[in-house]
Design goal:
This protein is α/β, with parallel strands linked by helices and 338 residues long. It contains eleven helices and 13 strands. It folds into two domains: 202 residues, 3-Layer(aba) Sandwich (D-Maltodextrin-Binding Protein, domain 2); 116 residues, 3-Layer(aba) Sandwich (D-Maltodextrin-Binding Protein, domain 2), CATH 3.40.190. Helix 2 links the parallel strand 1 and strand 2. The longest helix has 21 residues. The two termini are 31 Å apart.
C-alpha cells in the first residue's frame, strides 16, 4: 500500500463527505479577497493555494489575490490575517497544525484553532532528501552522520513541516544528534539550498521537492510514513520506519482559513463554493497525484475532526521537547498521558 492509499484510509469517511448542507443565504463579495500565504513563493502552501484560488474565483465571482508574507515560521503573515478587519475579505493559508499551535510556542499570543473556519484540501508528507552528490547511500548512513556535527538541514523554520520533521527524527532516533537546522523563509528556498549543496539535506514536504527530485538535483532517502511514497516519475521512496520503527506518524493537513467574526453568510457561501468547486476538482486531484500529496478536501466540523490528530501531535511534541511556552490545555488541546 502506498502513502496515498494509507493516508486516505486514515481519513475518517466523514471528512470526505459533505460537512454541512448547502448555504441558504448568499454572500456576493464586491471586491477582491486576499489570501495571505505566510511563507515565500514556491513552497507547499503557496503551490496549492494558487491551485485552489482560481476554483474559488469561479464560485465566488470575484478575484482571489494570493499575498506572500513570510517570516517567523509563518506567524507574521498569520498575525496579519488575524489583525485584518473581520469582514470576510482577508483569509490565510497554511498547515492547520501551525495555525492551531502558534500560541503554544509563543509566536502568536492568545490564538487557537477556534479562531478560524477551516477549509482543508490536501494532506502532505515530509521527505528526507540530500544533494544528488551527497555520499549517503541511504537514510541509515545519513542518520549516522546526523549524530555528528557536520550535517546541515534546510527547513522553513522550527514551526514548519520540515522543522517539525527534523525535530521528530531527532527525538525518535534518540542518543546524540548534532545535525544543525538552517532556516529559510519558506520550503522552496530550503529545498533549493539542499539541491545546490548550500546545506546537506532537507526535511521539507514532498510537494516542494518533487521537481528537484525528478531533475536529479535531489536524492530522496526516506518519507516520514510507515508506507513507501509512490509518485509518478520517481522511484518509490522508502518509509522512515525501515530505520526508526517507532517513528510517530501523523498526516499533515493543509488548507485555507477564514478568521471568525465575519457575517455568517460569508462562511455559508464559502462552504457551498468549497463543496461545489473544490471537493471534486480535477485540477486539485492532478496537483496532488503529481506532487506526492493526498487529495482530501473537507470543511467545517469534518475538517476539524480530521485535523485534530496532527494538531495534538505537534502541540504535545513541543511540550515533550521543552519548546512550549503555553500549556496546550490552555487553548483546548489535551496531551495524552505518558
Amino acid at each position: 500500500m502506498n502513502i496515498h492509499k494509507a493516508a486516505i484510509l486514515a481519513v475518517p469517511a466523514m471528512a470526505l463527505a459533505l460537512a454541512a448542507s448547502p448555504a441558504m443565504s448568499q454572500w456576493e463579495p464586491d471586491r477582491p479577497i486576499n489570501i495571505i500565504v505566510p511563507w515565500s513563493a514556491g513552497g507547499s502552501t503557496d503551490q496549492v493555494t494558487r491551485v485552489v484560488a482560481p476554483l474559488l474565483e469561479q464560485g465566488l465571482g470575484t478575484e482571489i489575490v494570493v499575498v506572500n508574507q513570510p517570516g517567523a515560521s509563518g506567524s507574521i503573515g498569520t498575525q496579519a490575517a488575524l489583525d485584518a478587519p473581520r469582514d470576510g475579505y482577508t483569509w490565510t493559508a497554511n498547515a492547520i497544525a501551525n495555525n492551531a499551535t502558534y500560541a503554544v510556542t509563543g509566536l502568536i499570543e492568545d490564538t487557537s484553532i477556534d479562531d478560524y473556519a477551516i477549509f482543508l484540501h490536501v494532506a502532505n508528507v515530509p521527505v528526507v532528501s540530500v544533494n544528488a552528490d551527497a555520499p549517503y547511500a541511504d537514510f541509515g548512513e545519513l542518520l549516522e552522520a546526523m549524530r555528528g556535527d557536520d550535517v546541515t538541514v534546510g527547513t522553513a523554520g522550527v514551526n514548519s513541516s520540515g522543522g517539525m520533521a527534523l525535530a521528530g527524527i531527532r527525538e525518535a532516533a534518540g542518543g546524540d544528534f548534532g545535525a544543525r537546522m538552517i532556516t529559510y523563509d519558506g520550503g522552496n528556498p530550503a529545498v533549493v539550498a539542499a539541491a545546490s549543496g548550500e546545506v546537506a539535506a532537507t526535511t521539507q514536504l514532498a510537494v516542494e521537492q518533487t521537481e528537484m527530485i525528478r531533475a536529479g538535483q535531489l536524492r530522496p532517502l526516506a518519507v516520514l510514513s510507515d508506507q513507501p511514497l509512490v509518485v509518478e516519475g520517481i522511484d518509490p521512496i522508502p518509509p522512515i520506519t525501515e530505520w526508526i520503527p517507532d517513528m510517530p506518524i501523523a498526516a499533515d493537513y493543509f488548507g485555507v482559513f477564514i478568521p471568525v467574526g465575519a457575517p455568517q453568510e460569508v462562511y455559508d457561501t464559502v462552504e457551498q463554493v468549497w463543496e461545489e468547486h473544490v471537493m471534486t476538482a480535477p485540477e486539485l486531484q492532478s496537483y496532488a497525484s503529481d506532487r506526492g500529496a493526498v487529495f482530501a478536501p473537507s470543511y467545517g466540523d469534518a475538517a476539524r475532526e480530521v485535523a485534530m490528530p496532527v494538531v495534538i501531535f505537534e502541540a504535545c511534541a513541543r511540550v515533550a521537547r521543552g519548546e512550549a511556552v503555553v500549556d496546550p490545555s490552555d487553548i483546548g488541546i489535551d496531551c495524552p498521558e505518558e
